[in-house]
Structure formats: structure tokens, C-alpha cells
Amino acid sequence: MKRRDFLKGAGLVTATAASGLGVSLWGMRQARAFGEVPKEAEGAMLPLELQAENILEIFLYGGVSQYESFYCVPSLGEASGTQWHAYLKSGHVQAAVDQCAFQGPLTEPFAADSMGQAVHLGPFVMPLRERPDVMERTRVSVSAHDLEPHEGAIPMMLGGRGLGHPAFSGLGAHVQRYFLERFNTPGRAPYSYALMSNGANGLPTDNVRSVVSIGMHPGAARPLAIKVDAAGDLTSLLARGTVGQNRAQYDALMQGYIDRYHERLRWRGEGGPLRAPRLGELEAASSSIANAQAISGVLEPQFFTKIGGSNCGDNAGTDAMTMNLKLAAHLLRHPTVPARYVCIVDTGLLTADGGGGYDTHGENSFTQARNLSHTLRQLLSVVNAPGENNPAKLDLDKTLIVLTTEFGRTPFKQGSQGRNHWPYGFPVVFIGGPVRPSGKGVFGACGEDGRATIASTPQENRMAALLSLGIWPFAQESFNVSDVPGATTEIDAALLVQKRQLGVVA
Prior knowledge:
- With about 500 residues, this protein is of the alpha/beta class.
- About 30% of the residues lie in helices and about 15% in strands.
- This is DUF1501 domain-containing protein.
């Protein structure tokens, strides 16, 4: 290349950058707000009538056993006594079914997977099977990654990124930022929440709190985390008793300090202030404190009254999952300040032997049956049934429900009654929202060894949720085209994700 041609090209790049147009390897495009759909991609987005208004995600902490739940293929593992057959012939599955008083056949045909294999729903999801209206809005995505420890698998499934990635962020931060930048009403309650139980805080090394990570987003994008069965501190803090009647003066003083810092970040007192992430986080925290009354107005006291629960002959003095589901429905269906995303970390009615609700190393069948059926039964109790129009309950046309877990369980036994970790092929479940009866089914498949032969990436599952809300998922703060196997452009990637995960074909 001649020096003159090179300088011309460099001049074009400089001029383009100065004009506010970004330059990328895929061509020049105008800078957009986070989540904004490019003009050329508008035709690839879900139609408005298919988009969800909000998302309820339930993180099934510990690793759900897929063979007795959402991905049971009776033809697999029969000869080797693995997968569905590992604890069928031993009688452990039947014993769990009897103890939980499930009625009906052990499995129920659901749909063919991507290899044409007949996938059944197992006995431990009996509450779902008892709601044909919900089954018609259900899509199973066989997913896979290679992280066996909880500490790595949990962040991967909640954020779609490995630990240490600069863009590692929970889904709630993407959603919070998107709506906050478009509908930033002063004093409004948060758009995103993470609901946990007191028990979930006992295992901080498992990185459960990655659900509120913000990655490259500003501090204001962080979801509000609440331990519903230990919220006494939160309610007292929201009352701001330490500043008493001096709240207005305190807030004005804090804002004065922030304004002075902004002035120091302006060059010679002109133009906008330089970017200062830490100051941005302080400003977000200060704003949240000043607007504590808006949050306390949404978090009504009755949702924090402890209630007990029972299932399959077991009793719990505090049923955090039921409490969380009632609060989640309230937040998502609030008449004036509805949330757009709520994630519940499900640690089970009772803790599994390995920790959490589903980490069943020592005993698989009964623990999985008790905790999973309890969660599904309580979930469906806050979802409108056909002909029911309770405004306080979830409407599947408006809410996408996502059931996520960090991995499945091994197709073979661990000990005499348990199963170990298995990230090589396990289900993520999408219910409602864009998933209509025409999209019901299964994407992906597993083989005789239990490993996925066709699978979704953790990133694709995160993208599907964002696309369901009309949020464009491609940005430095979120995901890339390369995160979607087989895609060459952002439009290709969006269309593939919507087809695979949500069953929507453009």
C-alpha cells in the first residue's frame, strides 16, 4: 500500500471516530445505547406480540437430575443401567413417587429432541404435567459446558461467562441498565431483583452471588438482593432511622459532594465530566438511599412473614421458596412500578446432602422428587390457570419463566443412591413469554453416554432471555456473535437463538 493511500485511510478513520461513528471489523455503524436494536436488525427481532414484559428466573441450585425431570429418554441407558434406568430398576424412583403420592404413569411423552429421540417428562415434575396449559408453553434447551465444580459452573450459567471475564454480568444487570436508561423515573423502585434464602448465604464460595454481578455496567445496574427469610436488617435500613428527621439535609449534602467531584472531573470547568466508574457507583448508591422510601413501598411487610412448608412427608419451619415466589409475583405484577426481572435462588424445601437443594451426591431420588415438585407446585400456584385472570398472578403471555441450573447429574450412580455433577448435557427450561404451542419442544440431544450431541451454550440461554424482552444482546458489556455456534453476523445469531431456545422462526 502506498503511503498516500494509507494516510487517506487513516484520515477516514480519524474523521469517522470524531463524528461519533464507531468503527469495527464488520463495518462502520452509529453508536447505540445499550440494548438498542440496530435499524438493519429490526426485522430479526421478535414481534411485539411475542415479546415478554418481564422474566422470572428460578436458579435450581445444586444441579437438577435431568433423567427424572425435564429430559428423560427411556430408550437411552437401558442396557447399561444408566440415565433413567440407574435408579428405576433398584426401586428408588418408585419409592420416591410413592412417598410423594404422585399419580399417573412414571413418565409422559413430551417431544422429540434434535436427534429424533422421544423425550419424556419424568415423575419429579408431576406438578408441571398436571398443567397441560403450561406444558404447551414449555421448551427444553439441552445445554452443555465443561465446568464440573459449583464454583465455576454457577457463574457460567448465571452470567454466560467464566470467572474473570470483564463482561461477566448476571442477567439482572443487563435488564436493569436497559430499562433504567430508558425509563429513569426519579424515586422508582428497581427493575431487577435477586431473591435468596438465608441458607444460600452459607455457601459463598459457590459464587451464588454472581446473580447480582454487573461486569462492565455502571453501579446503578446492580439488582437489589434480598434474603426473604432474613430481611429484618433490610426493612430497618430502609427506614433510615440513623438520620431521622434530617434525611433531606443528608441527601442534599451527599448530592453536593457528588456535584463537587463532577466539577473536578471537567476540563477547566467546561464540557462533560470525565468518566469515573467509582464516582458513578457512589452516585447510584446515594440515589438508592435517597429513594429508599420507594423500595420500602414495594416491599410490603407481609411478604417477609415466615411461613412453614411440607412436601413428600418432610416439613420445614421456614419455606423460603414459597415466600420468594409470592414476593416475585408481587414485584413482577406491581400495578405502578413492576419489576422486569426477578431471579430466585432455589435452595430447596430442605437442603440436599451435598448442599443447596439439588446437590444429591448421597441420595438422589427422594431429595430431587421432594424439592423439585415443591418448587414447581408453588410456582404454578402463582401462574394463572386457563380462564383465570387474577391480576396478582403471572400471565404466561407477559412473563417468561426460565428454569436454570448449573449442571445436571451423572448418568451413572455415585455410591448406591446418589449422582455426581454432570455439565456435559443437561436441560434449561423456558416457559411462556415467546414460547407458544408452535414452539413447544426440545432443542439439543444427548447420546447413550449422557453427553450432549447437540447443545446450546450458556451464552445462548442468556441471549434468549434478553431477546424475549426486546433487548439486543450484542455489545461489549454482554455477548458476541462467536458465542452462537453457526452464526456469522449479529442478525444470524439472534435468529438462531430465537429458533433454538424459544422455538420462534422468523
